[in-house]
Amino acid sequence: MSLISTSFEELQRREALAFARFATVVSEVSDNARVGDGDWTVAQVAAHVLTVFRRYTERDLTSAEGLSLTMSGVDEQNRVELAAEAHRSLAEVLEELRHQQALMQDLKLDAEATYPFHFGGRIDAFGGWGNMLGELLMHGYDVARTGGRPWPIEPRDALLVLNANFQIMPGVVSTETTQDMEASFEFRVKGARPHTLLVNHGSARVVDSSQAGAPPDVVLGGPAPAFLLNIYGRMSTPHAALRGVLIRGGRRPWLGLKLASIFDTPMG
């Protein structure tokens, strides 16, 4: 599936710009400041992003080794990998981040292939780049808010990240919550091809809406940045609605009120 069309050149350029923004905001906000409502400091956020870079640059990307099957497994992996960086100063983390980002820029991926991802899923090369872009944008957003600084997200950047999110979305749908649910949710993100999340008694998949087979139960539409922040748990559903993410129709539009509850956790 492909939410949008892009190229490695575009993704490399936008990732490099996002990295520069991330490195700047991390270096300007106090490294001991607590970020958002979480337990991480600014320095720990930077170290976490470093560990995510390594999942691309220091792994065999054709293997599932080094990935986690569950959301709790990802949380534990994050904890273990972050603890291994505890001895580094922020300056050391930033130096290693720059090295890893350079390796990322040199990464050679097959545009026709898909690669293993967390939750037993697979993601294409463009989605992999979009996922790394999302790490920089979302964690940069967190640090910027901690420091009281603006952090605008361009619609095109948001679309590139959402292209990754929609590929991995089935893996974060809760089997338990959706055991008795059969429903379809069509996403009409501005600037993207419509895609539909099909939920069927504990399983889920995302398809191009032209392949959904029936009219959707819920149609949601709106701008990409607000969709992105809502999916990552950085913006509440009411706030996203004020930014234009709205239920716009469907056979059973009231099911849209349950959408947030079917995911195990926000994506980042």
UniProtKB/TrEMBL annotation:
Keywords: Isomerase, Pyruvate. InterPro entries: DinB/YfiT-like, Maleyloyr_isom, MDMPI_metal-binding. Gene3D superfamilies: dinb family like domain. The keyword Aminoacyl-tRNA synthetase does not apply. SUPFAM superfamilies: DinB/YfiT-like putative metalloenzymes (SSF109854). The keyword Isomerase applies. GO terms for molecular function: isomerase activity; metal ion binding. Residues 16-144 form the Mycothiol-dependent maleylpyruvate isomerase metal-binding domain. This is Maleylpyruvate isomerase family mycothiol-dependent enzyme. The lineage of its organism: Bacteria, Bacillati, Actinomycetota, Actinomycetes, Propionibacteriales.
